[in-house]
Amino acid sequence: MSNVLEVVAADKNLSTLLRGVKASGLETELVKDGPYTLLAPSEMAFGKLPQGELENLLKPENKEKLTGLLTGHVLEGKTNFKDFTDGQKLRTLAGKELDVKVAAGKVTINGATVQGRDNEASNGVVHSLDMVL
């Protein structure tokens, strides 16, 4: 079974995320035993960023900022879609607290909707989001 990084690499809807993971050096973390839950911004999510922001984040001089942004999408432990609960608080590797809302079978995390869900990995799970957190 693929690890979290390989799941991201195999999904063309996560190619911008993969570029960011490589630019930040986060790939060394995402291949560890974990388990991790990756809340993966999709191509659509990155497309919603202000013009030029993504290109700016990918510059080597902004590696620290990019790493902070991306680790804000990684949770320790494995949380499957069915395990999210309304009002739940999640803590990211960056130390950020995220708020979960569950209503009518839909899960949002800090306002971002979980789209692709439960992409299993040997060291966790990947869920895609429609927004960058």
List keywords for this structure.
four-stranded mixed β-sheet, alpha+beta, 8 strands, globular, 6 helices, 30% helix
Report on this model:
The protein has a four-stranded mixed sheet. It has a four-stranded antiparallel sheet with strand order 3-4-5-6, with no helix packed on it. With 133 residues, the chain is α+β, with helices and mostly antiparallel strands. It is 30% helix and 26% strand.
- Globally, the shape reads globular
Structural class: alpha+beta
The number of helical runs is: 6
How confident is the prediction overall: mean pLDDT? 96
Largest sheet: 4 strands, mixed
Strand residues, percent: 25-35%
What is the gyration radius calculated from CA atoms? 14 Å
Amino- and carboxy-terminal Cα gap: 28 Å
The share of residues in helices is 25-40%
Could you name the ranges where pLDDT drops below 50 across 5 or more consecutive residues? none
In which order are the strands of the major sheet placed?
2-1-8-7
What's a quick, concise take on this entry?
With 133 residues, the chain is of the alpha+beta class. The protein is 30% helix and 26% strand.
Question: How is this fold's topology laid out?
Answer:
Layout (H helix, E strand, L loop, with lengths): L3 H7 L4 H10 L2 H4 L5 E6 L1 H5 L5 H5 L5 H9 L2 E3 L12 E3 L5 E7 L2 E4 L2 E2 L5 E3 L2 E6 L4
Parallel strand pairs: 1-8
Antiparallel strand pairs: 1-2, 3-4, 4-5, 5-6, 7-8
Helix pairs in contact: 2-6
